[in-house]
Design a protein that fits this description.
- The protein is mainly alpha-helical and 124 residues long.
- The chain has a domain of 76 residues.
- Helices cover 52% and strands 11% of the residues.
- The chain has three helices and two strands; from the N terminus they run βαβαα.
- Helix 2 packs across helix 3.
- It is globular and about 50 Å long.
- The N and C termini lie far apart (39 Å).
């Protein structure tokens, strides 16, 4: 199978400056990370990436709270905020890697998989 690298991208690492936590700023950080991942793939590694999303979940919860207070929107459960941000970050990582691979002439598929985690087996 060759060399395998498992890379963990922390959600906090995507916020390089607390004054600039926007999705665009985070995508820029992801794009910078994709350059380094592209180097690994170029050197023969197969790569598996996992990522956190702690601060992103907090932002999503806050947006939902504000939408509820200001516009009467229904609440968004934590589990949905986690899923939303997991999917969004996966999409951004996939997009950045596809762009980096294209730039390097690498013809490899990039796939995003959304997962579920059981925190408490007794929690329905």
């Amino acid at each position: 199978m060759g060399k395998l690298a498992v890379i963990a991208i922390g959600g906090n690492s995507l916020i390089k400056d607390p004054k600039f936590p926007s999705i665009e700023d985070q995508y820029q950080a992801i794009s910078e990370t994709a350059v380094h991942i592209g180097e690994l793939v170029d050197s023969g590694y197969q790569v598996v990436i996992t990522h956190g999303n702690g601060p992103q979940v907090g932002f999503a919860l806050r947006r939902a709270e504000i939408a509820g207070q200001e516009a009467g929107m229904p609440p968004v459960p934590l589990v949905n905020c986690v899923a939303d941000t997991q999917g969004a970050l996966g999409y951004q990582i996939q997009q950045a890697l596809n762009n980096e691979f294209q730039r390097r002439g690498i013809d490899k598929p990039v796939v995003t998989v959304v997962t579920q985690v059981v925190v408490d087996g007794h929690d329905p």
